[in-house]
Specification:
Blueprint lengths: L9 H12 L9 H11 L7 H9 L7 H11 L9 H18 L3 H8 L4 H17 L13
Helix pairs in contact: 1-3, 2-3
C-alpha cells in the first residue's frame, strides 16, 4: 500500500512534488540520476538513489543541511521551500503554471497573448472562462489574471 500525502512527512511530499514537476535541463530525473548529479557537483556529499527514494516516501526524514541545500539548488528552489508554507505555496503555484504551459496548445495561447492590451486580455479571458465552463472544467482563480 502506498502512503498518501497526508501520511507522509511534509519534507517527503515537497521533495516528491519537485521530482514530479520540475524538469532541470528539460527532463524528468530518476532518484539515481539526481543522486549522481548531486555527487558530481558536490563530491563530498553522501547520497544515493535509494536514499532519495526513502526521503520521497517518508521512510527516511532527516537529510543533512548540505543535502537539502544541494537538492534545492538542483531543482532551482529556495531551501525554505522545504520548511516554509508560504514559500512552498509560491513555488508550487509557479510550477503549476509552468506545467500548464507544457500542455499542448497552452503555450501557443500564452505566446499570442503576450503584449496585448489589458482590455483585450480581459475579453479573451472571459471567452476562455466560458469555454472552460462548457467543458465542465473548474474555474481558474489566478490572482495575476488581468483586471
Amino acid at each position: 500500500m502506498t502512503a498518501t500525502d497526508d501520511e507522509r512527512p511534509l519534507l517527503a511530499v515537497r521533495l516528491d512534488d519537485l521530482f514530479k514537476t520540475v524538469r532541470p535541463k528539460g527532463k524528468h530525473w530518476t532518484n539515481a540520476e539526481v543522486a549522481e548529479e548531486l555527487k558530481r557537483t558536490n563530491p563530498d556529499l553522501k547520497v544515493g538513489g535509494v536514499y532519495l527514494s526513502q526521503l520521497r516516501t517518508g521512510k527516511r526524514s532527516n537529510p543533512s543541511p548540505d543535502l537539502l541545500a544541494a537538492l534545492a539548488r538542483f531543482f532551482g528552489v529556495s531551501v525554505a521551500y522545504f520548511f516554509d508554507e508560504k514559500v512552498a505555496e509560491s513555488v508550487l503555484g509557479e510550477l503549476a503554471a509552468i506545467e500548464a504551459l507544457r500542455q499542448s496548445g497552452v503555450r501557443a495561447v500564452a505566446m499570442r497573448a503576450a503584449g496585448m492590451k489589458k482590455e483585450n486580455l480581459q475579453a479573451i479571458t472571459a471567452i476562455m472562462d466560458q469555454y472552460r465552463q462548457l467543458q465542465g472544467l473548474p474555474p481558474v482563480t489566478d490572482s495575476t489574471a488581468p483586471e
